[in-house]
Fold:
Amino acid sequence: MKIYNAIIQLIHKYDKEPYFINCGSCEDFANDVVELAGAGEVVWTDELDPDINIHDGHAVILYNSKYYDAECPRGVCDYRQLPLIINQDKTEYHKAMHQTKSEDKYENARCD
Structure:
């Protein structure tokens, strides 16, 4: 719960939709989560998979073998399940029109 609570707290502090935190502020956000939670480490998706199709990579939090970011506060076992990775081929307009602040939006994209 450390990481989850830190992510939720920081989403409110950043005052942006989680998608927009992930697009431009992911490194700062991931570092802030690790610092606030006192746990986890920041890793880059392009270091996990050099063929991943995200401009300049995406900074995520790795903690207890799960990956977290602003859109996925509950974490996933495989970084490829992160919403930003899953939705990377959708248009910017589509992404912007379908964002919510609900931390449970990706409830099914997690592992227990």
